[in-house]
Amino acid sequence: MSVKSTNENDIAPSQEIFRRYGFAMEPSTLAQLCKYHDFLQNENLKMNLTAVEETEEIYEKHFVDSLMLGKTIDLDSKSLLDVGSGAGFPGVPLKIVHPDIELTIVDSTRKRIRFLENLRGLLGLSFTLHHGRIEEFDRSNTYDIVVARAVARLNTLLELCLPFVKVGGMFVAYKGREYQEEIEASVGAMETLGGRLGRVDVFDVAGATRALIHVEKIKQTPAKYPREFKHIKKNPL
Ligand code: SAM
């Protein structure tokens, strides 16, 4: 794989973008994010990884947006599951900036998992990758924090993700401006699955409203969840 090497001139523009959002990064961290950007842009020419193609947009809409979670909760030394990570969002930028996170990614698309394997090698990162659907993942795997961005509506996401959160842990959904409506439609699902609505942090990235919906896991999720996807789709909670 051919990716250009990163030097100080490459990292300067990205440093300015992160500063704008209140992130002060070490040069080595910026260099990792810069390499990630270059690899994503190159590979995106060969396969469909992201609709976000311009450099500044990749930094803001993918990297900055992913990293906002680190401003709202303490991630260090936590186990974190990213469901439907696609080209690595939000899990991989979080792992780069908080290297003590124990990251696991589950995604149902083989080519995206292959991209993430190559990215992991390129950046010398350590995280676990599983190709498959989350509703078929072994429920004995539980995590301090489970995250998902752009995978499904909140009521469906809760069924897919809350079973894998440890009691006392947290599920965090990355959502857009219709977050309030999604929360209102998910009150029953939260209760059924052992969750309780926590903080909702709202911020602006690249001129768009973004929301981090925190759902605390207060009791065990009944063993029958998550159901097969056809049942979730036909009869959502
Ligand atoms: N989270 C990334 C982001 O925000 O850029 C990717 C979003 S992409 C629109 C949705 C991803 O979720 C795809 O890579 C797809 O393969 C994955 N996905 C959808 N349903 C899934 C499921 N039930 N289990 C695992 N992965 C799933």
How much β-strand is present in the residues?
Answer: 15-25%
Number of helices: 10
CATH superfamily of the domain at 72-234: Vaccinia Virus protein VP39
User: Which cofactors or ions or other ligands sit in this model?
Assistant: S-adenosylmethionine
Task: Write a structural description.
By secondary structure, the chain is an alpha/beta fold. Helices cover 40% and strands 23% of the residues. The chain has a domain at 72-234: Vaccinia Virus protein VP39 (Rossmann fold). It is built from ten helices and seven strands. α2 runs antiparallel to α6. The longest helix is centred in the N-terminal third of the chain and has 18 residues, at 27-44. Bound molecules: S-adenosylmethionine. Residues 83-86, 89, 106-109, 112, 133-135, 149-151, 160 line the site of S-adenosylmethionine.
Question: Main attributes?
Answer:
7 strands; 10 helices; seven-stranded mixed β-sheet; globular; about 240 residues; Rossmann fold; disordered N terminus; alpha/beta; binds S-adenosylmethionine; about 40% helix
